[in-house]
């Protein structure tokens, strides 16, 4: 069947990349982008980095416009899907017919009980970023509590410290990111916070927010209360799939859209899911993964473009890659650490804390973390998954 109508739900990095990719591939049919965020499409990584810090004007994060891809744009939310009749209904009541539908509707931050509350922030949208910046301006050199020490919490803490704000990070795990990196490596990474004057409280959770209507503190499960002029909550995200209830689209326990290695939701490859919302099958690991990182959304968008315009679909396999900018430096993670990996840490010289970690899977390099060491990342890329990659990369790092 020839494809004449593509509808894309979500106009962020994944959705806009599908639109631009289709045009680049010569697709001449209609493209319709649906997204309720009036500022979309824009990139999210600068929201916790350059834009929050005030180093970039917000329009530097723009990902272009629907006009540029000859696409129709609806500033509305998808509200219901009928895959049998290939109709998407919007919250405006409009109905869109499609030949191919791409679900790129991402994820939304989890909240704490008692939210919304003045002075308590999430950070997902450009509007969130503006609101947080305004509040950081308001509190001057006051006290910020960041709940959650993952990548976004750490970047917010880093930006707040650069503005002279007294910052405390509260993390339920024994060390931030210990679930992903393992405890030993996570403890090393945590030192970055201490080096930069951030108070890091680990192994404790939030019992509740204090102060109403404006937040004045955060009560912890160990009985302490932290005074706060503002609070940022960065405790993870959940897929935006409530609106798919009753559609027959299969979801995992977390609400992620289940799809195959082509990002296809159905056997006919009529509906696809990509990016933060999608739990796609990894053909080598033989399990489904939901990945909440930028490069994954981009790669899956490219895979879907190939699926739609042909000639033959290409299975997507995510080469796990994450970066994070913190305290004037850069952290990168290449490959996904496994709890069974052996770990070798190599330290480098330089003004910033600098080290690299090889996650050894037998003789192979299963994953590598680099901290403030770009050349170590280059060496890791060469060695990842190579038969004797683990020893090779450690030797290369020692010679840098
Ligand atoms: C502050 C911040 C910093 C980040 N930094 C990094 C980083 O340094 N490195 C990295 O790898 N990743 C980073 N990420 C993660 C990365 O931005 C995401 O993985 C990426 O944005 C996912 O893209 P997506 O297109 O799948 O979904 P999203 O970016 O979540 O976009 C989904 C879009 O769908 C729209 N939508 C939702 N529901 C509906 C609906 N019912 N109908 C229509 N539209 C809908 C939303 O409005 C949104 O515009 C960061 C994320 C944030 C929030």
UniProtKB/TrEMBL annotation:
Short name of any one Pfam family annotated for the protein: Reductase_C
Record-annotated Reductase C-terminal domain positions: 322-388
One GO cellular component, as annotated: cytoplasm
Keywords for this protein: Dioxygenase, FAD, Flavoprotein, Oxidoreductase
InterPro entries: FAD-oxidoreductase/Apoptosis, FAD/NAD-bd_sf, FAD/NAD-binding_dom, FAD/NAD-linked_Rdtase_dimer_sf, Reductase_C
Top-level taxonomic group: Bacteria
GO molecular function: dioxygenase activity; oxidoreductase activity, acting on NAD(P)H
Cofactor: FAD
Membrane-crossing residue ranges in chain numbering: none
Domain FAD/NAD(P)-binding: from-to ranges: 5-301
Protein name: Phthalate 3,4-dioxygenase ferredoxin reductase subunit
Organism: Streptomyces radiopugnans
């Amino acid at each position: 069947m020839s494809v004449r109508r593509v509808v894309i739900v979500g106009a962020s990095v994944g959705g806009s990349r599908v639109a631009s990719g289709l045009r680049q591939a010569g697709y001449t049919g209609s493209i319709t982008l649906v997204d309720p965020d009036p500022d979309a499409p824009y990139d999210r990584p600068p929201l916790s980095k350059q834009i929050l810090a005030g180093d970039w004007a917000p329009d530097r994060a723009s990902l272009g416009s629907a006009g540029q891809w000859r696409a129709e744009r609806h500033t509305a939310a998808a509200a219901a899907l009928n895959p049998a009749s290939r109709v998407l209904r919007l919250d405006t009541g409009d109905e869109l017919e499609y030949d191919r539908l791409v679900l790129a509707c991402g994820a939304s931050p989890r909240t704490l009980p008692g939210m919304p509350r003045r002075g308590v922030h999430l950070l997902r949208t450009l509007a969130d970023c503006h609101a947080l910046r305004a509040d950081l301006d308001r509190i001057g050199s006051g006290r910020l509590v960041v709940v959650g020490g993952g990548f976004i919490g750490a970047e917010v803490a880093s930006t707040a410290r650069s503005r002279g704000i007294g910052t405390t990070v509260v993390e339920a795990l024994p060390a931030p990111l210990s679930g992903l990196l393992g405890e030993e490596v996570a403890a090393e990474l945590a030192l970055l916070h201490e080096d930069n004057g951030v108070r890091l409280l680990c192994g404790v959770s939030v019992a509740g927010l204090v102060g109403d209507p404006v937040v004045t503190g955060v009560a912890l499960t160990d009985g302490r209360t932290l005074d706060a002029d503002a609070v940022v909550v960065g405790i993870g995200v959940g897929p935006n799939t409530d609106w798919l209830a009753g559609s027959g689209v299969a979801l995992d326990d977390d609400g992620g859209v289940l799809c195959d290695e082509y990002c296809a939701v159905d056997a006919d490859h009529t509906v696809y899911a990509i990016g933060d919302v999608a739990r796609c099958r990894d053909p080598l690991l033989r399990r489904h993964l939901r990945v909440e990182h930028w490069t994954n959304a981009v790669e899956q968008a490219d895979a879907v473009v190939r699926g739609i315009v042909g000639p033959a679909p290409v299975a997507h396999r995510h080469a796990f890659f994450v970066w994070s900018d913190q305290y004037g430096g850069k952290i990168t993670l290449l490959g996904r650490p496994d709890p069974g990996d052996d770990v070798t840490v190599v330290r480098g010289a330089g003004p910033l804390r600098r080290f690299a970690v090889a996650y050894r899977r037998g003789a192979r390099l299963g994953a590598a973390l680099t901290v403030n060491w770009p050349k170590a990342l280059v060496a890791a890329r060469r060695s990842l998954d190579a038969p004797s990659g683990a020893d090779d990369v450690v030797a290369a790092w020692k010679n840098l």
